[in-house]
Amino acid sequence: MAMGSRMRVEIYMSDDREKRMFDSLFAKRLDIEAALDGETVSWERLDDGAASRVAVYRSYNKEAVNEDTPQRRELFEWIEKNLSRMRELAKAAINDS
Questions:
Q1: Structure pTM?
Q2: Are residues 80 and 10 in contact, defined by beta-carbon separation less than 8 angstroms?
Q3: What is the DSSP pairing of strand 52-59 with strand 6-13?
């Protein structure tokens, strides 16, 4: 979860002090953004910290997803779809390194 009633799916690089992992992914940004078709990709280099992330966000109504509702199922489907995509992208990035 992210601030402001948003859900986030991400590739999180916790120890990317020199930003090499982020820069490697960013160099492939057009391919990554195409693979995440329909999503706005947030490129968060986080220069003031050790971490970096590549993420997609989705706003949601917290009250509407507290119980098993169509909104909750839709949100979980979005998470599952993008989590699978991000996992594939991260694996490909590691294999290319």
A1: 0.88
A2: no
A3: antiparallel
Domain ranges of the chain: 6-96
Q: In the predicted model, is pLDDT for residue 59 greater than 90? A: yes
Chain Cα centroid distance, residue 77 = 15
Of 67, 43, 70, the closest CA to residue 55 belongs to 43
- Residues contacting residue 31 through CB under 8 Å, at least 6 positions apart: none
Which tokens in the block code for residue 74? 């839709």
Cβ count within 10 A of residue 74 = 14
> How much is the pLDDT for 65?
92
Assign a CATH topology to domain 6-96.
Answer: Alpha-Beta Plaits (3.30.70)
How many whole angstroms separate alpha carbon 43 and alpha carbon 65? 27
pLDDT tens per residue, range 14-25: 999 999 999 999
Cα–Cα dist 54/9, whole Å: 9
